[in-house]
Amino acid sequence: DSGVTQTPKHLITATGQRVTLRCSPRSGDLSVYWYQQSLDQGLQFLIQYYNGEERAKGNILERFSAQQFPDLHSELNLSSLELGDSALYFCASSVDPAGLQSETQYFGPGTRLLVL
Amino acid sequence: GENVEQHPSTLSVQEGDSAVIKCTYSDSASNYFPWYKQELGKRPQLIIDIRSNVGEKKDQRIAVTLNKTAKHFSLHITETQPEDSAVYFCAASIRTGGSYIPTFGRGTSLIVHP
Predict the structure, then answer these.
(1) Nearest by CB: A99 against B42, B99, B103
(2) pLDDT-derived band of residue A68, with 50, 70 and 90 as boundaries?
(3) Which DSSP string do the residues of B42-61 spell out, in sequence order?
(4) Is B105 at the interface with chain A, CB within 8 A?
(5) Cα-based torsion angle of the residue sequence B55, B2, B28, B68 in order, rounded to the nearest 10 degrees
(6) In this model, does residue A1 exceed pLDDT 90?
(7) How far apart are alpha carbons B6 and A90 in whole angstroms?
(8) Residue B77 predicted with pLDDT over 70
(9) How far apart are CA A46 and CA B112, in angstroms?
(10) In CA terms, which of A81, B29, B70, B105 is 20 to 30 Å from B3?
(11) Cβ–Cβ below 8 Å for B43 and A55
């Protein structure tokens, strides 16, 4: 158990819908990262939040958004869902005190999203 | 863009043999190189990592080597066991926005035959 929690574990929805995935980082970790893992794409970095503010952006679609709340938990919102959005979505956290060097990331168990 | 190449995509070995997975990266500023093991349907778990001021690191049957000049790093697993079967991902930190973000290779599926 990495100490990172994610809910829900599984999510089945239809095209065009909107869903919210939730992540709670390890106690004391200030940074939260979101990744998408599809069968043919490996682990794709989506976005990072540090202490409530967006720090870095990767290959995140405009239909997707995220935020980090004062208690440091984070939510990833996926809207206008398409079949191709079906994937495992992982959240990871790290201490990242200053962002000046890379810190070890600890991954949550993931949310498996299936869009029908 | 910046990327990480990982080879081979599949590696099949007999129990007790050694396994080597190799990665190359393009960003000369990368300074952190973690390796993750992911079992089917589970989270990636860190197994070993190395920073750019070190050339080699070992933890029991697992070792990682780094050649900064050539921009490549490798994972070595000795005396493989069936429970080592999993997908292994390398990563290299890439400067992204205000952070260094691990960029992952596409993974190596390691199969250890008993």
Answers:
(1) B99
(2) very high
(3) S--EEEEEEETT-SEEEETT
(4) yes
(5) 20
(6) no
(7) 21
(8) yes
(9) 33
(10) A81
(11) no
A-B C-beta contacts closer than 8 Å: 67
Contact B45 A109 (CB under 8 A): no
Q: Where does the pLDDT of residue A40 fall: very low under 50, low under 70, confident under 90, or very high at 90 and above? A: low
Structure tokens given for A82: 């398409």
Residue with tokens 């819908």: A17
The minimal CB distance from A107 to the residues B44, B97, B100 is found for B44
Calpha distance B89→B74 (Å, rounded): 11
Q: CB-based contacts of B51: which residues, under 8 Å, 6+ apart?
A: B31, B32, B33
Other CB atoms within a 10 A radius of the CB of residue A96 amount to 23
- Name the pLDDT band for B98 (thresholds 50, 70, 90): confident
Retrieve residue B38's tokens.
């992911």
Q: Please give the pLDDT value at position A92.
A: 95
Q: Determine the pLDDT at residue B65.
A: 96
- Option in A42, A56, A58 nearest B107 (CB): A42
B36 CB neighbours in chain A (<8 A) are 107
